[in-house]
Specification:
alpha+beta; kelch repeat; BACK; globular; 5-stranded antiparallel sheet; repeat; 8 helices
Length: 443
């Protein structure tokens, strides 16, 4: 079983498609070793009877002939007939999210799957990933990671600023453990930019001031199709300052750091609407802007520092289904320099002081943050974080203090088998986003 499991989950497995892996798992599960054992025993029994008969006819004396009856000996290390008990485990290690929706629906109709609770749950989870675009935004689950021989690769999208100020897009390959160039033209250097991914498409937003706009600026949007950026028609004017974008289902929400206006863009239809503003908070001064924005299920969470010292963080939550803002419990530690990421089970918040939190639901109608661990003790401004299998990759602004931190965690038992720290030279325009791209566009 361990050998079969190792083959199914191997990154180096070479197959035409993941459908071949599923077929192999089903064939292995259906195979009955006892049938082979029965056939072998029958053949041996027949051979022994023939041998006895021939021997007795040849020797008419009353001598006792010692014959070893092989029919009673059973082959060793033959797997149990109850292979169905392993079906759910094997399917959970396959890349079901890379299989077509139609194939998954057919798989659910297979009696081996429909009558096995774990297998049924695993396939249904993959089917939701294919059907609901919200499941495909942000972090990919393990079941959606392409193997090393695939035409696609799960990578981190990053940027590198050139000497003239332009931004060069590049990717980080996790299996190859190095940075790759992306066959895409450079982006013109802008002071305020934002990136997000939706259904494995990269979206790029920037501000540009026109005449008579004063302290305001227009927001422009582009999306990366194959290896070319194409403009999206939209009209939005915001204060010329840092802004954020985040994705809920098939909408992109645009939120400036001062929280005065928020917009919602549907990139497919290129429709845009304005939404309620972030409610004023008496504990937040005008100069203390939103520092980080994330999405969680159908909600948007905005993090701001309570005071200039940054010892406590205000967490505001916008429910897109009800179109209202609410306040969550304050979070200990700074909001500035934080980041967020996901794995197969939770959404995490990671602060610059090394504190790691996860989103939990104490009750069905409530949302809270639960402390997990402290990964380091110094202050490290973060760019982004991505999980790849059981590894956590954290990217932040280059820091000499981090490498000398005696409390720097290299793994987190039961959660992350390894933690990889990546130092970056950039700050405001740097990104570290999970995305799946064709290998032919990276070199």
């Amino acid at each position: 079983m361990n050998e079969i499991l190792h083959i199914v989950q191997s990154q180096d497995l070479k197959v035409n498609s993941e459908q071949d892996v599923i077929k192999a798992i089903l064939h292995w599960t259906e195979f009955k070793p006892s049938r082979l054992l029965h056939n072998v025993s029958t053949i041996r029994e027949m051979r022994c009877k023939r041998f006895k008969t021939l021997t007795i006819n040849k020797f008419e004396s009353n001598e006792t002939i010692a014959i070893s009856d092989q029919s009673d000996s059973k082959p060793q290390n033959i797997s149990s007939d109850n292979r169905e008990q392993y079906l759910g485990i094997l399917l959970s290690k396959a890349r079901l999210c890379l299989v077509s929706r139609e194939s998954l629906e057919m798989l659910l109709c297979n009696p081996l799957v429909s009558e096995n609770k774990m297998a049924n749950d695993v396939v249904n989870k993959a089917l939701l990933y294919k059907v609901q675009i919200g499941k495909r935004n942000g972090q990919w689950p393990t079941a959606a990671i392409h193997r090393n021989e695939s035409d696609f690769e799960n990578v981190a999208m990053t940027t590198k600023r050139k000497e003239n100020g332009d931004l060069l897009l590049q990717t980080m390959s996790f299996p190859r453990n190095n940075f790759l160039h992306l066959d895409v033209r450079c982006l013109i250097g802008r002071e305020f930019v934002a990136f997000c991914t939706m259904d494995n498409i990269l979206y790029y937003f920037f501000m540009a001031q026109k005449e008579n706009q004063g302290h305001n600026a227009s927001v422009y949007a582009y999306r990366l199709i194959d290896n070319e950026f194409k403009a999206i028609k939209m009209y939005l004017v915001l204060k010329y300052a840092k802004f954020y974008v985040t994705v809920i289902d098939d909408f992109i929400y645009i939120l400036p750091s001062n929280g005065k206006v928020m917009g919602r863009l549907h990139p497919v239809s290129e429709s845009f609407v304005s939404l309620p503003t972030v409610p004023a908070d008496p504990t937040i001064k005008d100069g203390q802007a939103i520092c980080h924005v994330i999405n969680y299920e159908h909600m948007i969470l905005a993090f701001s520092s309570v005071s200039e010292k940054g010892v406590e963080t205000v967490v505001q939550c916008y429910d897109t289904s009800q179109n209202i803002w609410t306040r969550l419990n304050n979070l200990e530690g700074p909001a500035k320099g934080m980041t967020s990421f996901r794995d197969d089970h939770f959404t995490y918040i990671l602060q610059s002081n090394g504190d790691l939190w996860k989103m939990v639901r104490p009750q069905s109608d409530s949302l809270d943050l639960e402390f997990v661990a402290n990964l380091w003790s110094c202050d490290w401004s973060l760019v982004g974080a991505i999980t790849f299998f059981d590894k956590l990759y954290i990217c932040g602004v280059r820091s000499e203090m981090l490498s000398r931190d005696p409390r720097l965690s290299k793994y987190l038992p039961g959660i992350f088998g390894e933690i990889v720290y990546i130092n970056s030279e950039l700050t405001e325009t740097e990104i570290f986003l999970p995305i799946t791209l064709r290998r032919k566009y990276m070199f």
